[in-house]
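Read as chain and fold; for instance:
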Amino acid sequence: MTRLLVTGGAGFIGSAIVRRALEEGYDVRVLDSLRDDVHGAPADVVADHERRGIAIVHGDVRDRVALDAALDGVDVVCHQAAKVGLGVDFQDAPDYVSTNDAGTAHVLAAMDRHGVGRLVVASSMVVYGEGAYATASGEPLRPPARRREDLDAGEFDPIGPDGRPLVPGLIDESASLDPRNVYAQTKVAQEHLASSWARATGGRAIALRYHNVYGPGMPANTPYAGVASLFRSAIARGEAPRVFEDGRQRRDFVHVDDVAGANTASIAATADLPSDSFRAYNVGSGVVHTIGEMAAAIAGPDGPQPVVTGEYRLGDVRHVTASSDRIARDLGWRAEVDFARGMREFATAPLRAAVR
């Protein structure tokens, strides 16, 4: 039986991967720092894992002792542990870089010590910056970062050289990387570290570039939560979800159960890759929806209806949606949960309460 270590395996996506991996017959071990601002009461999380027969090591990915205990006898690592979201302000930057980049370096060094040569690492759509665009005449064009003065004026869509809005499309893995905020920079660095590790050790690595993941168990009431969770929390309080810009930002919303399936497909695929391999795959539904549509779907016809505020966050991009053709072709993975059903279920699903 293949022994799998899931770092961050007590988190939102990590827990879904653990469930899926157990169903597929893996011997699963978890390493998690169990931060109470993400998970709630750590003792409850540990007890839940132990009830399900999952070995859990309580420790940080930067802790050599915890890593060595977690990696003993492991065949493959699924590295999900990370600090996510845009945070509160730039004062969060050292924590992002330390947790995500130094943490990944510690994981990879420990894998080398223990002779573990297979890795799946969580990346993100944010590595692209803005998505794929074309001019009105059909010429591909990646726009620069949006200017504050344009955003202040309510001009949210990137403009082409002819003065007309660019036409958004689906971005694929061949696109250049253009991270626009600290979190995005750390995700690019994680990919580069994984690629360097594979070349240096003969390992096999796959990075999964998640698009907008949603589903039961998302963290609630924290600045680091995803937008779907923030909308869901507002509605649960009887408040209208506040939609930034004009609500027409295009995204690809993918259910956490589908993301878990992409991970187990990738875990299996690492066994068949050549040595010194690094592959990156988009993980999205392949269907485009707007932020406003997502807010309305969560609210439903009877809930507090979304309010479009015109506010913005520097570092946010306007449109980024995925082509997931490469992972379908190489690994046979496709998303199965459609948007309408997934959002209906999410609207009533429990969220994960953090300790404040």
